[in-house]
């Protein structure tokens, strides 16, 4: 006898056996006997390819960054609008600065505005066939007095109202200038060399700081030619100082001199001063004038 299992595994037929009520039956059908049911094949996942040796990897390109809100670079020109930012020389916003648009067609016809906490201002211009020019002023209270400074636009040019403009302003003139005038007749001693201003050295000791512009440090400088006409010391941070001066001719020991604010009081070994109001050809800056006398 041939076992049914042998037939099922080797004949290529499907052989089934069943028994019911003492009767057995054998069914032989075409098919693949004993073969496991086929399962659909899964597509193979290709292995990641590696770049060939010696090929440098490409850096990722970062997304472009946008300027932070409230920066001058975001402002755009709009018809009948002039706006901009007012900042100090360090780029910090100035709040409360007065700005104005000067109508170049009509005399004394200005539009006024004030900067907010971010230093921003905006003026709406009337529909007039004219051009405008921008200006401004900034004030600070210190030591019982008011310091006023002119603001000049970075682009100091007129513009038409129907085109509008962006006009940013920077406050830079936060320093003062010291002029020194020797009393030459007092240096006419028999044993004294001829006095030269470059041999005079001034020491400024801060008493108080008017602005956050660097005042607070002792300043020692020789007298020299300033960027404006005249001899003295320029670009001194505004504040109240105690000034002394000494003569340092070559080959001799330094000699303290007497000093006073020009035309005020007696000569003394030192003098305290504040910078005067703007005047003369320094009408955009603060100054002070001194007289020096040989003791």
UniProtKB/TrEMBL annotation:
InterPro entries, sorted: CarboxyPept-like_regulatory
Q: Where is the composition biased (Pro residues)?
A: 43-70
Q: For the region Disordered, what residue ranges are annotated?
A: 30-74
Name this polypeptide is given: Copper amine oxidase-like N-terminal domain-containing protein
